[in-house]
Design a protein that fits this description.
The complex is a heterodimer of chains A (166) and B (313). Helices cover 34% and strands 14% of the residues of chain A. Chain A is of the alpha+beta class and 166 residues long. Chain A has two domains: 76 residues, Ubiquitin-like (UB roll) (Roll), CATH 3.10.20.30; 80 residues, [2Fe-2S]-binding domain (DNA polymerase, domain 1, Orthogonal Bundle), CATH 1.10.150.120. Chain A is globular. Among the domains of chain B are: 46 residues, Uridine Diphospho-n-acetylenolpyruvylglucosamine Reductase, domain 2 (2-Layer Sandwich), CATH 3.30.43; 87 residues, Enolase-like, domain 1. The chains are: A alpha+beta (166), B alpha+beta (313). At the A-B interface, strand 4, helix 4 and helix 5 of A face strand 1, helix 2, helix 3, helix 5 and helix 6 of B.
Chain lengths: 166, 313
């Protein structure tokens, strides 16, 4: 069936089997292979993209459910010549080893900083009305992005760097 | 994933009618649990009715009696962050934030959260018998690895637990689930009667009919008091509860408690709450009377006692 949405600012129309997930639409039908398929069950976060500004697992949603939506993938955040500040910080702080989880980590961390700025509380927020950046907040909010190389301390350092220099 | 057809519904009654018309049809909203199960072919809908575009069921609004009406499509992130929920129903914010990951909470809906299927490892393994997945095939969990499974309200057919954190808070707050049927008839189901015990029919998690659509969940007027959600799990974040306690403790010493990770439904024994004056151990003893743990999960009984003590401390 036909579906139209915007990916990284570009209007896109596709004809898809309803079974195609948003992740498979991006990777297999649009050649945007930055978003990765890890577990394909919403457990690892490698497929994280932003839809209408909110981070979601693109493997757990059908492409046909996104008529009219605005999707941002890692390819829409920056380019090799012009890195997004979060991409530059991951390089600077060595926030990865094999790199497979990295696009999802970066999409998630860009959204995490916006969520903290918007005052959305987390499990570790002591007072639900006082939301502030801390390493503990970053660790809790990034728990849906697994890094099997365990680059976690450097990922937190990269996110902190972007926060401090924003 | 099995093949299915897909349509978008534009009103609650239209959605319910569309599901009633097509045998094997299901509603889809956030999809975070349904698509997971469809990939494993544990859920095999023939037709999906997408309810995400339905207007009027995506807002949180005040009710005439001083409570809140939470639209079925309100996402978990939005519900946890709502200023009224943070202030007057903090146990609900806390329970939501203790569940899943940021990505999942952005997509998961209020109604869908209530309808989550169990995470019993045997339900998730199509190679093993499971009465909930394939009625009549037997329960692999009772003699199997049952560390995380139910200790109370169990049957010879099923010892699965209900996985939601949000539902435990909804139970302690005495929420009501509002639904619509294909003919447009509405129904209000008290949360206590919404989830069920397994008995001989563990395939049914709730008392909802297959073509009945949840339109909202309503909360009575604020209870006041101190709100706590204490969750014990195998890692610090992004794991289902081993044991959890939702507590609302009033200034006059009265309290309400609901428990997660123990049963096929949010576990609340109102009569046990009257024991609070005698201490939390007395509450736990009364709430867990008749428990039937396995050798793997008997540790949950002392863990509930300690978690309850920690929750009110």
């Amino acid at each position: 069936m036909p579906v139209s949405f915007t990916v990284n600012g570009q209007a896109t129309s596709l004809t898809l089997d309803p079974r195609v997930t948003l992740l498979d639409a991006l990777r297999e039908h649009m050649a945007l292979t930055g978003s990765k398929k890890g577990c394909d069950h919403g457990q690892c976060g490698a497929c994280t993209v932003m839809v209408n500004g909110q981070r979601i697992n693109s493997c757990l949603t059908l492409a046909v459910m996104h008529e009219g939506d605005e999707v941002t993938t890692i390819e829409g955040l920056g380019s090799p010549e012009n890195l997004h500040p979060m991409q530059a910080a991951f390089v600077k702080h060595d926030g990865f080893q094999c790199g497979y989880c990295t696009p999802g980590q970066i999409c998630s961390s860009v959204a995490v900083l916006k969520e903290i700025e918007a005052g959305i509380p987390s499990h570790v927020t002591a007072d639900l009305d006082q939301v502030a950046f801390s390493d503990a907040e970053v660790r809790e909010r990034m728990s849906g992005n697994i890094c099997r190389c365990a680059a976690y301390p450097n990922i937190v350092a990269a996110i902190r760097d972007v926060h401090d220099h924003a | 994933m099995r093949q299915f057809t897909y349509e978008r519904a534009s009103s609650p009654a239209e959605a319910a009618a569309a599901v009633a018309k097509a045998p094997g049809a299901k509603f889809i909203a956030g999809g975070t649990n349904l698509l997971d199960l469809m990939k494993l072919e544990i859920e095999r809908p023939t037709h999906l009715v997408d309810v995400n575009r339905i207007g009027g069921i995506d807002a949180i609004e005040a009710t005439a009696d001083g409570g809140l009406r939470i639209g079925a499509l309100v996402r978990n992130t939005a519900l946890a962050a709502d200023a009224r929920v943070r202030k007057d129903y903090a146990v609900l914010s806390r329970a939501l934030l203790a569940g899943a990951s940021g990505q999942l909470r952005n997509k998961a809906t209020t109604a869908g959260n209530l309808l989550q299927r169990t995470r019993c490892p045997y339900f998730y393994d199509p190679a093993r018998p499971c009465n909930k997945r394939d009625p009549g095939t037997g329960c692999s969990a009772i003699e199997g690895f049952s560390r995380n499974l139910a200790v109370i309200g169990v049957s010879d057919a099923c010892i699965a637990t209900h996985p939601s954190d949000m539902a435990i808070a909804m139970r302690v707050l005495d929420a009501t689930v509002e639904t619509v049927s294909p003919g447009g008839q509405t129904r209000s189901i008290p949360i206590a009667e919404f989830h069920r015990l397994p008995g001989d029919t563990p395939q049914a998690d709730t008392t909802l009919k297959g073509d009945e659509l949840i339109t909202s969940v309503t909360l009575p007027k604020p209870l006041g008091g101190r709100h706590v959600y204490r969750k014990v799990r195998d890692r610090a974040s992004y794991a289902f509860a081993t044991v959890s306690v939702a507590a609302v403790i009033a200034a006059d010493g009265k309290a309400r408690f609901a428990f997660g990770g123990l049963a096929h439904k949010p576990w609340r024994v109102e009569a046990a709450e009257a024991e609070f004056g005698r201490g939390t151990d007395a509450v736990a003893e009364a709430a867990l009377a008749g428990a039937k743990p396995t050798k793997d999960n008997a540790f949950k009984l002392p863990l509930v006692r300690r978690t309850l003590a920690a929750a009110v401390a």
